[in-house]
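Ligand: fe (ii) ion. Inputs:
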Amino acid sequence: MHHRETSPAAVPADAAGLAARFRAARALTEALAAPLSDADASLQSMADASPAKWHLAHTTWFWETFLLREHATGYRLWNDDWPFLFNSYYEAEGARIARDARGMLSRPALAEVIEWRVSVSDAMTPLLDDPALADLIALGVAHEEQHIELLMTDIKHALFLNPLGPAMWNGTPPPSAAALSALMGWHYHPGGIALTGHGGSGFAFDNEGPRVRRQLRWPVERQL
Ligand SMILES: [Fe+2]
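Predicted complex:
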């Protein structure tokens, strides 16, 4: 789906565990996409949705562009033509393919994109412990997590449009269910005044704050 790129809020990143969070987010993206064939992963079901393969590649483009190219000495781009394919909306990074043409990318193949992902993740290893890069890496992890949500939303719509009703996991839970529950959760609130918006010291996108008081109400049927 369409999303706005946002800037990181001016908060210090929690350096401890950042490397682990990087690896967890990268692995979760790949585990969730693992059941998809190249054809599945290349589908763009509508202009506002992106192919799974594009999400896999775009998140990798982010690490290569903003971390490796800028901060890894001697790093060479995996493929000089790919930034045009996998930039989203970053004007400063130059021209890019139209969003509604992302479904035309039968090449590179899914396997090539996965190979690129592994290479970029490996190349990131020496940067993960650099305190000077912690805020940027925290932004990249949040960006990857954002695209995990988009990947799931978009592939759900794409598979829904197939009259055969293909399922991602054929009735079995996704292999990454444990990782998913570690990243996400529901919070119960009885209703009334609630504080919403980011209020901690960790990373948040600038559109997730400030912290404000809101009136929360249950839906009518829950009040009866
Ligand atoms: Fe993005």
